[in-house]
């Protein structure tokens, strides 16, 4: 079994994690009775790669440890970091409510469960920053097997669909089904499974489709084990991951929280400045292919990295909370009380710097040109990538350098979701122009609106671009 699918964390279910005993639990932030180091425990999801600036990459770069050494020197004490890796956000919440994790990162739906759980126990947690986000929802994707006869979400009626209940991917599934007129509770046979279990179920045929979060869909498609059925960006609703801190910890150790956020910002800057080096570091730590990491985290990637908690995300949380209440996952949650960007603001110095960052939703790691068209090619052995103005230019270059290409990326013609060029569904319009789509259903919809357009194979698209028969 591939390393990514055999993670020990992937065998722990979210439900079981939430039932961890809360008794006899000590604080994650503690000082030994002999005056030893102060331990700060960080829960993260190494393989949920749009949290890397608060987890995998942050840990690999040592930024938090560096900040704590400086803080300890000023305070006359020693800090040490204990990193705990999990497959999903649910066990992080369980450990936080048990007092065993001080700072954790997770997706928007798990964040709400984290907030609700803290409120329920009278020990509220706080959302202190954001890691990676997508303003349209493309971090979550529904995939099916390559040979599956499923063509769209409507075809899921009565089918077995694997997801992780209470996750952002589950939210995407519920909303997509709702828009298709399918009752999420009875219209499908939902399988509540961890991502790795669901991926195996899809491969074996015990699941007809899989709805999951980054990086599972991209990984399975890259391996040729799945094809995209539904692009979460079709919902047009922001999805993001963020950093939450135990309320008591944040109140007692604000300087540590701020040290973490300064470190997160340093990791974010590194990701933007050295995208391929960052992709390789994350790949080494997780067992993911670097090409998959770069699909999400690279320039014009599916994930945009910016720690500010934007008003649109707060609004999205309130909508998500309403959905979770309808599902019976939570009873109530005070989103406004949960959000606390005061620590993050302090890391920006002047208030104007934070306000400017808060207003900006453009990707700091953008390719040159129009982001709705620009593509990228990564050659084997190269330490940099090549940017192209549009998908046809990408294809033309790939056609001329087939043996040298490590990965080629193009944006969906409708949603803008970045995807592997060879896995995209290509449509050629009446004028010869080539348009890539993440899903065949999106391609069919677009084709129906453009007279004379036709779906073509990847090989045909490459040939048309190479011969100059595409604009």
UniProtKB/TrEMBL annotation:
Pfam families: NMT1. InterPro entries: SsuA/THI5. Gene3D superfamilies: Periplasmic binding protein-like II (3.40.190.10). It comes from the Bacteria. Residues 87-277 form the SsuA/THI5-like domain. This is ABC transporter substrate-binding protein. It comes from Streptomyces ochraceiscleroticus.
């Amino acid at each position: 079994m591939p390393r990514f699918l055999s993670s020990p964390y992937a065998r722990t279910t979210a439900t079981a994690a939430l039932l961890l005993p809360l008794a006899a639990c000590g604080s994650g932030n503690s000082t030994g009775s002999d005056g030893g180091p102060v331990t700060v425990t960080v829960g993260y999801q190494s393989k949920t790669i749009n949290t890397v600036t608060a987890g995998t990459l942050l840990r690999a770069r040592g930024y938090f440890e560096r900040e704590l050494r400086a803080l300890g020197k000023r305070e006359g004490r020693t800090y040490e970091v204990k990193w705990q890796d999990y497959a999903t956000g649910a066990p992080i919440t369980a450990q936080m409510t048990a007092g065993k994790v001080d700072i954790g990162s997770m997706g928007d739906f798990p964040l709400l469960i984290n907030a609700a759980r803290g409120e329920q126990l009278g020990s509220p947690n706080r959302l202190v920053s954001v890691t990676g986000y997508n303003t349209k929802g493309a971090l979550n994707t529904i995939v099916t097997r390559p040979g599956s006869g499923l063509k769209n979400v409507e075809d899921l009626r009565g089918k077995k669909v694997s997801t992780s209940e209470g996750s952002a991917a589950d939210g995407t599934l519920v909303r997509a089904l709702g828009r298709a007129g399918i009752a999420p509770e009875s219209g499908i046979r939902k399988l509540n499974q961890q991502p790795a279990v669901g991926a195996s179920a899809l491969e074996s045929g015990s699941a007809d489709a899989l709805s999951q979060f980054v990086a599972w869909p991209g990984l399975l498609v890259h391996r040729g084990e799945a094809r995209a059925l539904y692009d979460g960006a079709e919902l047009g609703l922001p999805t993001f991951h963020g950093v939450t801190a135990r309320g008591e910890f944040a109140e007692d150790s604000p300087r540590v929280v701020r040290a973490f956020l300064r470190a997160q910002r340093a990791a974010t800057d590194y990701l933007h400045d050295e995208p391929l080096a960052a992709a390789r570091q994350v790949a080494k730590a997780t067992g993911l292919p670097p090409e998959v990491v770069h699909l999400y985290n690279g320039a014009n990637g599916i994930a945009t990295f910016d720690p500010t908690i934007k008003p649109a995300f707060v609004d999205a949380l309130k909508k998500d909370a309403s959905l979770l209440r309808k599902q019976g996952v939570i009873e109530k949650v005070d989103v406004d009380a949960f959000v606390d960007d005061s620590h993050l603001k302090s890391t920006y110095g002047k208030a104007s710097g934070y306000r400017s960052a808060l207003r900006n939703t453009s990707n700091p790691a953008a390719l040159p040109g129009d982001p709705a068209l620009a593509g990228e090619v990564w050659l084997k052995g190269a330490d940099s990538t090549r940017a192209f103005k549009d998908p046809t230019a990408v294809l033309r270059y790939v056609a001329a350098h087939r043996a040298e290409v490590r990965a080629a990326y193009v944006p969906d013609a409708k949603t803008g979701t970045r995807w592997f060029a060879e896995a995209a569904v290509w449509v050629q319009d009446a004028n010869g122009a080539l348009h890539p789509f993440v899903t065949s259903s999106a391609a069919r919809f677009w084709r129906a609106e453009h007279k004379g357009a036709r779906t073509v194979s990847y090989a045909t698209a490459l040939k048309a671009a190479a011969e100059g028969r595409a604009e």
